[in-house]
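Supplementary Methods, section 5.1.

A reviewer requested that the exact input to the structure prediction be made available. We therefore reproduce it here, unchanged from the version used in the analyses.
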Amino acid sequence: MEIHAAIALGLVLYLVVTTGVSFLMMSRVRKPADYLMAGRGLPFWALAGTITGTCIGTGVIIGGSGLAYQHGWAGCAYPIGLGLGTLLVGVFYGRMRRYNFMTLSEEVACYYGANRLIFEFSNVSIFLSQVCWLTVQIMGGAAVLGAVTGLGPRTCVVIAGAAKAAISIPGGMKAVVYTDVVQTIILFCGFGALTSRALHQSGGVSGLVSAMPAGYGSFLGVNSLGGWNVASLIVVMILSVVADPGRRLTMYSARTEGGARWSMIASGLAVLGFAVVIGIAGMFAYSLNPGIPKPDQTLPWLVMNVLPPWLAAFVVVAVVSGMSSAANATAAASGSFFVRHIFPLVTGRYPRQPLVVGRRALSVVFLTATCMALYTQNIVAFVTKFLPLTMSGLAIIILVGRFWRRATWQGALAALIATPAVSVGCSFYFSKSLPNPSIPATLGGVLALVLVSLVTPPTATSFEQVAETLARQRQEIETTGGH
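The structure derived from this sequence is encoded token-by-token as follows.
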């Protein structure tokens, strides 16, 4: 079978199955909590599958393999940061399941006495971040689709956006989780086959590394990419997980607190293991063709020019599965945030038909993200510039708020201002000597939060008091019927 035909058949089958699951789950949605949070009844195995798939999205598959193509084992830094961040959240934040939160903003509100300014800032910034992350996932899907079909970039973006919307919108969180489990299995099987082929053809890991330029085989590629850049990438990825509403939403949807904690830990370990696979894929492509024009084309080139048709189709479906898992989680978080926070912020009340509003909001989110993807060029550059400006400050106030009860809302506000300010300042004044500002931006944010908190009055309302108030507010959304 010709390679294009094999890939097309694999993608069609994949889309039919996942869309079918989504519409099947749509028929089982009875109330908003089912659509937005899968009824808070997800078992450990489902949680582990969906969280792992969420971590291994476009950034890891396309960005990580491209970085490995350019700098060897440095490509592992991307998934290592995500894996460590997932472990961190599981160990230290799994207990948040007991409070029945619906969104990450509710958890943030409890750290800072439900201060309105911090609460609404978190709502808006997290919602906008999800739109941007969805843009990244659509870009990745379009890049793969363009490489394997030859269609124009804009056409591929539109197709990728429409396909992801068809999978995510109908069934909500339930569809997201159970399709993600299937997608994660496909992902690991496909990349397992690719890794086996790469090692067999290269003479094992030692043979592959020996064929690379000097520095590629050093620990995490620090001799090629530079220790500062590797550390910065890991830090920014850890922070991205801490402040990621999609993973939090999945954790909040667990059946038990133990399931929430251990699913995150298991997923973190799985992603850490997958880091080696990404490094091997990027270096294998370099060993065969050191002249690929763009890093984002590394994995698509490998699929189209090296693998036999059956394996190419399998790997492409695996790649699309990983990207779809990440997009699904992002979409689910976007819907929950809109219903719980953005709609009340704009209208002053909760929606009377949360399911209808949630599906319509997701349609608009996918349309917006697709339009943004049409005008964005490079995935890795988009991520590394976007995260320090938008999400690092939020991650800082979540980390400090969790471990230091003396933190105040004024300190949190100072961190939210200082973190992007330091990031922009470093990029403007030290762009050559300090190309990645994530570490100084993080330190600046922590310092601002601590200093301002020490000179402002302690928070008067306890974490538990705020959580009880939020629980009463949520009841209207979670129990309202109507499709």
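The chain is about 80% helix and 0% strand. These observations are discussed further in the main text.
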